[in-house]
Amino acid sequence: MKIEGAAIIVTGSATGVGAACVRQFAEGGARVVVNYSRSKKEADETGDICRSLGAEVEIVQADVADDAACRRMVATAVNRWGRLDALVNNAAMTVKSDPFDLETLSAEDFQNVFGVNVIGAYQMCRAAVPAMRDSGGGAIVNVSSNVAFTGGGSSLAYTASKGALNALTLALARTCGPDIRVNAVCPGIIDTRWMRDTLGSDAYGAIAKRFSETAPLGRVATPEDVAGAIVWLVQVQISLPANCFPLTAASACPVAFANPRHLAEPHRDAVGPIHPRLPGAASNTCGYRKRCHPLRPVGWLRHQCARRKGIELRL
Questions:
Q1: Could you tell me which of 39, 33, 81 has the C-alpha nearest to residue 60?
Q2: Residue 188, Cα to own-chain centre: how many angstroms?
Q3: Helices (runs of H) and strands (runs of E) counted in the chain
Q4: Average pLDDT for consecutive 10-residue bins of the chain (315 residues)?
Q5: Which H/E stretch holds residue 60?
Q6: Confidence at residue 313, expressed as pLDDT on a 0 to 100 scale
Q7: Intra-chain end-to-end CA distance of the chain, in Å
Q8: Which of 51, 97, 163, 277 could form a disulfide with 105 if both were Cys (CB 3.0 to 4.6 A apart)?
Q9: Which distant-in-sequence residues (6+ apart) come within 8 Å of 29 by Cβ?
Q10: Dihedral, CA atoms, 56, 58, 59, 61, nearest 10 degrees?
Q11: pLDDT value of residue 257
Q12: Is 68 exposed, middle or buried (0-12, 13-18, 19+ CB in 10 A)?
């Protein structure tokens, strides 16, 4: 797909990854819908940047959990430009909870998170697909997370929602292809305001430092890194349907693997639930560290590290 002249919707695009996406699309000559739920000031600023790059812009306030709002957003693009070529489902939410105390997460929490992260993405696709087909085809990119593979994340509801979003991506690719390509990107930790606010500045700093130590690029991902992958998936000329791409080059955690140096650290330190706890671990030193292979599955590493410490671990 040619980016120049394309009409593209990016949900949750006032800040962070979404804002980086619309900026990069605008640089390529696309016409963009900047969507926000509450961050009007930031959405206006992002829209102004896109206009300064020569792009035509529509700014739409909409909560993707509301089906009528999703349909209105698509209609706004079609009414303005007569077509819709691509959709990036970036809008997301989470709740904070203690993964080791299941009572801290309610059914309502699950419903709210799934309402945006899964149902919202589906409603946007449902509204957008007819317009894309009328335009001759298109591309959909869902912004997921590598917590769908690792089991980490800010809450069990968030982690489960990203796993569901990956499954939805694969199912939609079968339903919408071949004229509409559907893929997902699954980044790790990203340097965004949303992630800092979600984790807290201290926890974010500790996690970012830990991940940067083993990341190939020596740092965590930026919104521009993730946006670059998304833009590529939209414009790539080869057929790439039904893939969930883990973005690990800058975020250090290769899909379902972990660095063994982290496995024996107390589970309630600043890194929170991202690294599994070992019951009874008394220090930050892993006795099996030198003999652990960095690409062994997490469960295997936990078992071997525990065995070395004489810890009984029920998996």
A1: 33
A2: 8
A3: 11, 7
A4: 96 97 98 97 98 98 98 98 98 91 95 98 98 97 91 88 96 93 89 76 78 76 92 80 60 31 30 34 33 38 43 37
A5: strand 57-61
A6: 36
A7: 46
A8: 97
A9: 3, 4, 5, 54, 55
A10: -160
A11: 27
A12: exposed
What pLDDT, on the 0 to 100 scale, is given for residue 241? 56
pLDDT at 237: 64
Distance CA 112, CA 223 (A): 25
Supply 82's token pair: 């007569």
- CA distance linking residue 296 with residue 260, whole number of Å: 9
Residues assigned a catalytic role: 158
Burial pattern 252-288, b for ≥16 Cβ within 10 A else e, equals bbbeebbbbbbbbbebeeebbbbbbbbeebeeeebeb
273: preceding bond cis by omega (within 30 degrees): no
Place of tokens 């209105």: 72
pLDDT for the residue numbered 251: 40
Which residues is 86 bridged to in the sheet? 8, 139
DSSP per residue over 223-239, as a string? Answer: HHHHHHHHHHHHH-SS-
